[in-house]
Design a protein that fits this description.
- The protein has 357 residues and is α/β, with parallel strands linked by helices.
- The protein has two domains: 6-159, no CATH class; 171-341.
- The protein contains eleven helices and 14 strands.
- The chain has helices at 6-16, 37-50, 76-91, 121-127, 146-149, 162-173, 197-212, 247-251, 284-289, 310-318, 323-329; strands spanning 28-33, 57-60, 73-74, 99-103, 109-110, 133-134, 153-157, 181-184, 217-220, 232-237, 255-263, 294-298, 333-334, 338-341.
- The strands form four sheets. A six-stranded mixed β-sheet has the order 9-8-10-11-12-14. Strands 2-1-4-7 form a four-stranded parallel β-sheet, with helices on both faces. A two-stranded parallel ribbon has the order 3-5.
- β11, α9 (284-289) and β12 form a beta-alpha-beta unit.
- α10 runs antiparallel to α11 (323-329).
- The longest helix has 16 residues, at 76-91.
- The chain starts with 5 loop residues before the first helix and ends in a 16-residue tail after the last strand.
Amino acid sequence: MKLQLTPILAAICLVLFTVAWGQSPSTVLVVGNANNASSVTLVNYYMNARNIPAQNQLLLNLPAQYTPDNVYQTTLADFENLIAPAIYAYIATLPHIDYIVMCRNLPYIISDTSSVNGYSIDSLLAGITLSKISNPYYGAHSAFNSLTYGMFLVNRLDGYSWSDATSLVNNSLTAMPAGPFFFDEANIPFDTNPTYAPIDEYMTAAAVMLESMKVPTILSQYQSFYAPPIPLGGYRSWGNLDQTYTKPAFAALQFAPGSICELTDSNSGRRIRAYDRNETFAQMAQLIHQGLTAGQAYASEPLVNGHINDTLLFPNYLAGMNAAESFYSSSEFLGWKSVDLGDPLCSPYSFDPFIMP
């Protein structure tokens, strides 16, 4: 079901089909909560750091219940009435927008009794939809432009703390080609289960592709869950679904500025904003706290085909696509469960790409 905002969408389509700009900070819309001082500070920090035009700032005037830092849920009604229309309407007033950056304090998950309970609001915004749809950018190997694809790339600056959210900006700005890419395949039962086997198959295939590109690569098969003793440039694992997973090993993972990650753990975005020492699922926010620059998490269960395709994510990123392009070009669906964390413009390989032979 497409989001019913006909006058607004008509204006957006007019903009998308009459103006085309290259990828630059001028195509980024930055959104925060006008009633949370820290959210406004983060908006301004990111815009100044990336030299984003002042007109590309949108501060939503949300009700008081959304002001506390720990509020991360919203209802479908509030998404339809308070969040999505304001963003789309403002986009229609700007020359051209490809990226939407949602700053900490804004909710990221629908939580009610509607048909989209547990869905990511970022993924809904990206697809201009209220239901799960195919991603027209999936499988692309070229620069994103909303003129071409009729959608947006939505990322989020968020984390356990305001400091962690700010680190996503800082790590992006200092990103350089660095560190090995580590693929940690699961032990049984997942690698022998036909339902889950594609995940490990993607990891293996991606590792082979990266090795052919002369990228430092580590592929762990049938070994215990572990953390390499050096900062990583990329990381993919099953998280706590690996039978040998341990919290100390997960906490020992190190990341270089510019690093990207996806976890097969289906609830890796359950606690983006609130650390819980008793949490059993591996959380992407913890890896951000440990230095990760960009990661795709999940607000709730995305099913196997809702996870990223490693053979697209990592080669695209290494070939020079930015973080947002890399994650969205490897994700089959929009209007679903993914939450993409980090600066969308992070692109440490754009000037020194690795090319498939």
